[in-house]
Design a protein that fits this description.
The structure is a single chain. The protein is of the alpha/beta class. It is built from seven helices and six strands; from the N terminus they run αααβββαβαβαβα. About 40% of the residues lie in helices and about 15% in strands. It has a four-stranded parallel β-sheet. Strands 1-2 form a two-stranded antiparallel ribbon. The radius of gyration is 21 Å and the shape is globular. It starts with 5 loop residues before the first helix and ends in a 5-residue tail after the last helix.
Length: about 200
């Protein structure tokens, strides 16, 4: 038995295809969109189409941009000799929020994950190697997530970069600020001890 009009069910089904959106949330979103005034719903639809038409990857760093070259790569005030390698465009936003990094980025658009059938050829490693091979890069910071796939990707890229005789570093990680030691797992505590600094 069909509970909703076909068009509404199709709208809910499309929302359900988004990551992290389950069936009930998709239905709530569909109801919300139907309650919007027509001009707001049109603006929402136009924003999706506009983003799809205008946003592309930067030819230098592979981050998302609507310009020929992204604003970070185009900024002469940044240190272009230090490249921070991240898995996804959203990781650039996280790094930029810290206001501590003044280098440039390279976005892989994924990590090596054999279980998900993602190989080194499926992510933007080749573009990174070409970029580093052009010279003027003194350090590459691996900032992939500290999980199995992120670690494997960081190690794979570091082995490829080793012959180029540049410094390859990994983000330090350990006990999060505001947490308690009793809740930290063994690997986190081990990494925190390895990355300890003099105070």
């Amino acid at each position: 038995m069909q509970y909703f009009p076909a068009a509404m069910q199709e709208l809910a089904d499309q929302f359900a295809r988004l990551p992290g959106i389950g069936g009930k949330t998709a239905q709530r979103l569909a109801f919300y969109v139907l309650e919007l005034p027509l001009e707001d719903a049109q603006a929402f639809a136009d924003a999706i189409i506009q983003a799809k038409n205008q946003v592309h990857t930067c030819p230098v760093c592979q981050n998302l941009t609507d310009r020929q070259i992204c604003s970070i790569c185009d900024d002469d005030g940044r240190d272009h000799s230090v490249i921070c390698v991240v898995a996804e465009p959203k990781d650039v936003i996280a790094m930029e929020r810290s206001r501590e990094f003044n280098g440039v980025y390279h976005v892989l658009h994924g990590v090596i994950s054999p279980l998900n059938h993602v190989t080194q050829d499926d992510i933007r490693i080749r573009e990174l190697l070409l970029r580093v091979g052009q010279g003027d890069v003194r350090e590459v910071i691996m900032a992939t997530n500290p999980d199995t796939e992120g670690e494997a990707t960081a190690m794979y890229i570091s082995r490829l970069l080793r012959p180029m005789e540049i410094k390859v570093t990994r983000l330090a990680y350990g006990v999060p600020v505001g947490s308690q030691l009793e809740y930290a797992d063994e690997v986190t505590l081990s990494r925190a001890l390895e990355g300890r600094q003099e105070i």
